[in-house]
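ZP: hey, is the zinc ion complex queued? I don't see it on the tracker
AM: it wasn't, my bad. submitting now with these inputs:
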Amino acid sequence: MNCELCNKNEANVHYKQVVDGVVRELFVCRECAERDGVCMKTPAGIFDMLLGGLDDDPVAEGVTELRCPVCHMRESDLKQEARVGCANCYSVFKDRLGGMIASMHTGTLHRGKTPQSVRIRLEVGKLERELKEMINAQRFEEAAAVRDRLARLSAHNQSITEKQ
Amino acid sequence: MIENCKKQEKRRTSGSRTRGMRRAAGDDSSIVISSRVRLARNLAGVAFPGWAGEVERRMVCRQIAAIAARVEELQNPRILMMDEVSPVERMVLQERHLISNELAEGSDGCALLLDESCGIAVMINEEDHLRIQALGAGLVLDDIWQRVDALDNALDSLLEYAFDEQFGFLTACPSNLGTGMRASVMLQLSGLRLTGELEQVMNALDRLGLAVRGLLGEGTEAYGNIFQISNQSSLGESEEEIVSGLQTLVQSLVRQERHARLRVLQSRRNLLDDQLGRALAILAHNRLLPSGEAIDLLATLRLGVETGMISGISSAALSGLMECIQPGHLQRSSGRGLTPEDRDAMRSQMVRSKLVDVRLSGRKHAIIPPEDTLGNNGQNQSGL
Ligand SMILES: [Zn+2]
Ligand SMILES: [Zn+2]
């Protein structure tokens, strides 16, 4: 039989797993198994979670389907592709993906690296709030120091944007 | 190709930084074959490769090619457009774990940014725009994480990554959100297989949220009892936590494996002797050697080397050989397409020629006949 995921290659990997008390069987090719991290010892493969999570609520006829305005991926495409189309899809399909993301990972909040530009943006926001407070409290000397730091940061940010 | 194999052996055994770390970690290299770290990254404002069109994918390739020369972390970056790389070369890259199956298919607009001198490979337009990865021999997760981290920082200053404060780096598959990191270690668990504890250990790893995959084989019947263990979750922990979590776990696994080998050596020596004897007999007299069987036999030899029962070859050399006997490597060295039977014959000869110095410890005579004693007229293709 053909792989249930790509419908292209011969299915030579067989998964059987219990999801919500229901036994699911999945016959896939080695490529799909590898690509999708459906691992031999994974109790709930990514695909099962993805499909399982989205399956239960089929789009009713006549109802406008949720669609990403940036990449034009529709909810039905998401099901089909089992991948999001672009970064913006995460905002569009947040409600549909949230539960799945939580079940796949140890946490729901990123605690790793942050890109330089985002770090600077966050820092600028923080300094601007501080500056406001200082001016309100008439602590002008400290405010001047903060304003200098802000100026340096935006100059730095400018150079990054130019490089990119 | 032999030259290439030698280079790989050299790479595996040299490199003072790597060796120092390995020694510090208590010579885990006898059980751990290799470590690998990859980061998934996407460019802001561009559809992810699987959903994007070919034009967009080619644009991403051009963008990366344009900045590669400006990245100080790279010494000799080369961009290989997959549709321009021959099928055999793609197979070789895949067997070296530098590209995935998906990239090996050579679809349009996929590329590999490769820097051999830095041991870094960046897949362009695989599932994500960038898959930054580094590999190293032995348990060297910290070392390769630092390399990947440095390149990531350099690319970050030249590109704009798709990022979200809650979900971290945004990836095509939600399973890679957060750090976008997959850290993995390849190790040989023959001792635990012999003591019958492998299944139990696998279940424990599974409960700890780690993925276990066999090398080439499927299920627990992995060739050579070689497994790849990796983190599954990438969101909710920092990169350092993921790396050190896996490192700690692998170290404990290494202790268990070492302990299992010791027990087998002490109380079930016959079992080990038997396996080794059978492996040597087949290695000495086979004339057609399929790659799965070759991996099995070489892994048994590796176990023999590690338990001190065999001399005349190093573990690293055996690992190198496992790589060189794969179909793509063989076809490249022969310079022509080979039928599966041709490959099995060539592999058989190459393996035997590499094992002529192998001896049972304490004995003088070689085990693998140096010459083709069956009177086969095939010339020594391996060039040794
Ligand atoms: Zn498939
Ligand atoms: Zn989208």
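AM: back. The mean pLDDT of chain A is 77.
ZP: great, adding it to the tracker
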